[in-house]
Amino acid sequence: MRAKILVIGAICCVALAMMAGRFTRVVAATGPIATDCDRACLEGLATQYLAALVAHDPKTLPLAADVKYTENDQVMDVGDGFWGTVSAVGGYKHCFADPVVEQIGCMVTMHEGDHMLIMGMRLRVQLGRITEIETTFYRQGGGGPSNMEGYDKSTPEPIWFETIPAANRVSRAQLINTANMYFAGLENNDGKGVYPFADDCDRMENGVHTTNNPTLSPNAAFNAFAMSCTAQFKSGYYAVVTRIHHRRFPLVDEERGIVWAYVIFDQNGTVHTIKLTNGQTVSMGNIFNRPSSLEVTEAFKIENGKIRRIEMVGSGLQYHLNSAWGGISDK
Predict the structure, then answer these.
(1) CB-based contacts of 238, cutoff 8 Å, min separation 6
(2) Model confidence over 169-198: pLDDT tens digits?
(3) Domain containing 135 — which CATH number?
(4) Closest CA to 266 of 176, 331, 194, 190
(5) Which stretches in the chain have pLDDT values below 50?
(6) Domain identity same for 128 and 47
């Protein structure tokens, strides 16, 4: 019995030593990523990722052996999918870093052959290695309005990079709660919710302003896009969004008041007319007459508990898509 115990003990020691060796190798062979990747480190990593993507060469990246990679919520191998068709990085790049959890999200215009698209990209670093890569794509005709060429020639508004005074900063949980109030107000929108918008709130979707924009209308009978963020939600126009699920908030930047979110918008196809809060009845025509969903990547700039800016990449996908990454709401 004593001999058997000694043998088992020896096997355990060897196993632990091997595990320790693997752990040491992963940490030591981090390449350009520090094990405490700060804002500059994360921003550099995003640039490195885009270069590797265009070069069609994921081997130049410090990837974890079990890295998880998705394109529009489909799990696949790094190097597959867009890695084979990308041709160049476009002119627009807006990145949001969260050094606390060592993650960065970017909205970038990209070229795929002769066509332009918008990519939402999230990278997570653990122990000096990239462990998660989440990408979403808006291609022309992918659902909703867009202005990719204008987006490509623009630069992010300076307001996104403004630092919130230390005395006015709030916790990560409070920032997430404010961002989630946006989705709570949008889901089955009836105009009666609590809508946390600043007076200067503005929203950009796939490169086009969908608030404060009288030149674009989603409906001939009612131009919601000409309205402010608050007025839109108070009108009840977005009742067509029947469910918002798989909500996630993986990045938060307390210093700048930023929240990066992922959600799925469902339109179940049964909302053919909407009774607005002003008494007007608006027909949705043939836009939402079948079950459909939008996969949404969305960034919020929040200050003093109010949303000042929203930037979104959204693409139409199969109805009630279940995210490969889960979420705090899964129904």
Answers:
(1) 186, 189, 224, 232
(2) 999 999 999 999 999 999 999 999 999 999
(3) 3.10.450.50
(4) 331
(5) 1-30, 330-331
(6) yes
